[in-house]
């Protein structure tokens, strides 16, 4: 009898038989529950000291060849149900975790059904250089240890729902072990367990609810069908005896083909797999990866179709152990490419030993046995392909990753030879095995010191921020404002080579600060919460906040506090120096790349004016990529307020008073502006700054932070609504601030955009640090400008109201300043 005739006979037999009846009749096993259970599951036996029977899925694509559209469709349907359960917002923040080896493809498919969820699957293949992010045990399996090896550890660190996907939910032990292990390390508020079938016993049914109460999280269950397996007493011993009897009686594990040459030619098909797409989710698979794979699938399926032998009518795409998703998507695309002329089926090889019985009432009719060919960590051993021999396939397309394309694969007893003995045509398709890039090692790691922290440097608590700066507190850097302005405008010195004398506010000005803080604290809290929520939703579930010192530092501290208050996250936060015209501190970037994934870094600043620093950062990062070869830093700045419409990530675009702009070091941890001077900062040094310890009595830094943070509980609902609106809005930068600055520069005869400082914050800086010429105020501007008006009065600077000003105010630095330039009253400008 030929393999094809054998397969046709099997099909006739299966039409009237349930593939679990053989086991049920001999061991008294009962499968009870939803009507569709018998269509979804068959039964088999295996030699396992913990469980005799095996539920064999007809729609998973592991042991039983099935139409790829059926396999993929079940996963998509489950994913869509999870999306409906969670709602759009929570689904957008979800992460999917599939179990190795049987549910790696199913987990991927569920993530596809969710639409935007990244996916990870556990693995039993350690990868050199990739650190474990966790692990757990599968108690009933023949191979228990699961490893979690995400390339980006932050993948599991967010607070969005974690969706755990397995083929069956039998006792619940695996899920319980997983959730406990992960919740201890990455706590979150919601879990969703997904399985094709829920087969828990009544005794196990309540354990999921018990776990939810134990950890204080919600745990939902989504399945295609549910039921239970009723096992008679002594089934384990009876099953082991039945397996042993059949193994002794079997003369060969696989029926030998007859009527043709017992060995076919093994050819190859070049897929041209996209180089930037991982072969699976062992190290994580993102929506961007999914989009690139979707675009490449039609061409790869066409290459497979062209390589098939003429006249092939029944084709199997055979995956390889954990490599389930890539072969499934290739099979699905091939199915659509060849249409109804060719029956495409899909299954994979496995590590799981199962008894084969050639009976229509048994799920595993035949098996091929071959040695492992991917150099597994647990050593050599047998591997299996079930229901391939005798199934009448005209061709098999074996899909493996490059790590498994070894001499053992092509050995006389290897998988290729085993397939060729039973199928006329065998094609091998190799997917490049994805290996995460090792983290960048800095060229001079020993020369980059650890960040400075309070109380030794700054009045902030040590966990609030680490300063990637060097301490220049003992160096005299201050110069009179007039001297600095003349040197800067004449080109004799850069503004970052000296420091202005620290402005000591009058009692009246301090009262204005406290009044402004009291009235704006809630507004600030809303903006802090909104920008942090956007960062967590769009940039990284566990970002590394990097403030642009020093104005960005209080904002970074507040964002860190919000993330801890709202989500229980303890985010890293650093402050680095960026200097207009000279770029960002490259040594600080090297330190960050050595300690964190650059893709997680989010640069933070207080506000935008005309967008000069936004442009400076983008140019500096491009230069850094060229000089150091380190990529991944995102130039998009997150700001509290974006009145200049220069960025996408902001809490508000209103130009309002941020009280921290009213003061200098005394609201910024007593830290000066950053300094970059060649005689003080060498090529291997961080930029410098001073810690004004002597101003401790006047320090308002903790008071400012606390006044805003104490309002967090009051604004939570408002933040949720504001963040939701912003996430749905078109936040494309218009750069209208830059256009306004250029217009003002020409209209007022300045002809230098660097001397035009738009917005309340920048205007305040002009009044405190530079030689101001005049202030333009939007007509009708109210209390937000009280402090600016006071400073203008003290310094003899006119305030001119402008009807159509796009900002609340604009500060103009005195153009072409020389010592003797005068203010509005005709006197030399002085502090």
From TrEMBL:
Residue ranges constituting the Cysteine protease StiP N-terminal domain according to the UniProt record: 458-708
GO molecular function, one term: glycosyltransferase activity
Domain Orotate phosphoribosyltransferase-like: 40-227
Keywords, sorted A to Z: Glycosyltransferase, Transferase
Transmembrane feature ranges: none
Lineage: superkingdom: Bacteria
PELOTA RNA-binding domain: residues covered: 735-814
Ranges where the TRSP domain occurs: 279-409
Protein name: Phosphoribosyltransferase
């Amino acid at each position: 009898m030929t393999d094809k005739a054998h397969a046709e006979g099997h099909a006739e037999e299966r039409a009237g038989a349930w593939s679990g009846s053989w086991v049920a009749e001999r061991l008294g096993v009962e499968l009870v529950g939803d009507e569709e259970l018998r269509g979804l599951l068959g039964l088999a036996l295996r030699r396992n000291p913990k469980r005799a029977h095996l539920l064999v899925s007809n729609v998973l694509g592991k042991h039983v060849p099935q139409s790829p559209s059926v396999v993929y469709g079940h996963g998509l349907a489950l994913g869509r149900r999870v999306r409906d359960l969670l709602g759009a917002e929570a689904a957008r923040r979800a992460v999917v975790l599939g179990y190795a080896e049987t549910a790696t493809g199913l987990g991927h498919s569920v993530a596809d059904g969710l639409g935007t969820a990244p996916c990870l699957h556990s693995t039993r293949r350690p990868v050199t250089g990739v650190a474990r992010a966790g692990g757990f045990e599968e108690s009933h399996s023949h191979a228990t240890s699961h490893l979690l090896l995400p390339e980006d550890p932050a993948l599991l660190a967010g607070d969005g729902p974690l969706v755990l996907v397995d083929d069956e939910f039998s006792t619940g032990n695996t899920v319980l072990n997983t959730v406990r292990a992960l919740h201890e390390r990455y706590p979150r508020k919601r879990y969703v367990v997904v399985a094709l079938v829920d087969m828990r016993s009544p005794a196990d049914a309540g354990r999921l609810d018990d776990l939810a109460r134990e950890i204080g999280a919600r745990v939902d269950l989504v399945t295609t069908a549910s039921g239970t397996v009723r096992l008679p007493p002594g089934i384990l011993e009876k099953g082991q005896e039945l397996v042993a009897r059949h193994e002794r009686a079997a003369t060969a594990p696989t029926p030998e083909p007859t009527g043709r040459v017992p060995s076919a030619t093994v050819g190859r098909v070049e897929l041209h797999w996209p180089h930037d797409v991982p072969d699976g989710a062992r190290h994580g698979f993102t929506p961007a990866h999914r989009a690139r794979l979707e675009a490449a699938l039609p061409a790869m399926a066409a290459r497979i179709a062209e390589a098939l032998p003429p006249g092939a009518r029944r084709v199997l795409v055979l995956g390889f152990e954990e490599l389930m998703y890539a072969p499934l998507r290739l099979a699905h695309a091939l199915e659509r490419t060849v249409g109804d002329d060719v029956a495409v089926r899909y299954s994979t090889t496995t590590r799981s030993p199962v008894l084969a019985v050639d009976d229509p009432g048994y799920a595993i009719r035949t098996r091929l046995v071959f040695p492992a060919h991917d150099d597994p960590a647990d050593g050599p051993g047998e591997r299996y392909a079930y229901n391939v021999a005798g199934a009448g396939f005209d061709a098999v397309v074996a899909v493996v990753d490059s790590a498994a394309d070894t001499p053992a694969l092509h050995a006389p007893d290897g998988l290729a030879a085993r397939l060729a003995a039973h199928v006329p045509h065998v094609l091998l398709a190799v997917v490049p095995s994805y290996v995460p890039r090792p983290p960048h090692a800095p060229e001079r790691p020993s020369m980059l010191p650890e960040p400075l922290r309070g109380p030794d440097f700054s009045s902030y608590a040590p966990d609030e921020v680490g300063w990637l700066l060097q301490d220049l507190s003992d160096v005299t850097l201050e110069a009179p404002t007039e001297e600095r302005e003349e040197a800067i405008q004449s080109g004799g010195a850069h503004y970052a080579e000296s420091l202005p004398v620290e402005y000591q506010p009058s009692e009246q000005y301090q009262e204005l600060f406290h009044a402004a803080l009291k009235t704006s604290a809630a507004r600030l809290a809303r903006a802090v919460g909104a920008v942090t929520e956007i960062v967590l939703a769009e940039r990284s579930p566990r970002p590394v906040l990097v403030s642009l010192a020093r104005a960005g530092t209080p904002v970074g501290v507040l964002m860190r506090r919000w993330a801890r208050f709202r989500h229980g996250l303890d985010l890293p936060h650093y402050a680095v120096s960026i200097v207009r015209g000279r770029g960002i501190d490259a040594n600080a970037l090297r330190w960050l790349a050595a300690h964190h994934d650059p893709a997680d870094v989010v640069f933070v600043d207080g506000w935008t004016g005309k967008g000069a620093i936004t442009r400076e950062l983008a140019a500096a990062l491009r230069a850094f990529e060229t000089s150091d070869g380190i990529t991944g830093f995102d130039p998009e700045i997150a700001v509290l307020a974006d009145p200049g419409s220069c960025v996408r990530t902001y809490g508000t675009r209103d130009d309002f008073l941020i009280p921290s702009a009213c003061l200098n070091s005394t609201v910024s941890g007593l830290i000066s502006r950053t300094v970059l001077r060649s005689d003080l900062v060498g090529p291997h040094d961080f930029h410098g700054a001073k810690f004004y310890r002597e101003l401790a009595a006047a320090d308002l830094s903790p008071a400012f932070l606390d006044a805003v943070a104490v309002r967090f509980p009051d604004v939570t609902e408002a933040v949720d609504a504001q963040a939701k609106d912003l996430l749905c809005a078109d936040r494309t930068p218009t750069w209208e601030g830059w256009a306004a600055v250029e217009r003002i520069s020409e209209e007022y005869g300045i002809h230098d955009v660097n001397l035009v400082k738009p917005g309340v914050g920048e205007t305040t800086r002009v009044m405190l640090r530079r030689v101001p010429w005049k202030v333009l105020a939007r007509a009708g501007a109210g209390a937000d400008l009280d402090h600016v008006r006071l400073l203008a009065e003290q310094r003899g600077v006119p305030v001119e109201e402008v009807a159509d000003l796009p900002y609340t105010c604009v500060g103009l630095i005195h153009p072409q300043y020389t010592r003797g330039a005068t203010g509005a009253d005709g006197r030399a400008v002085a502090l």
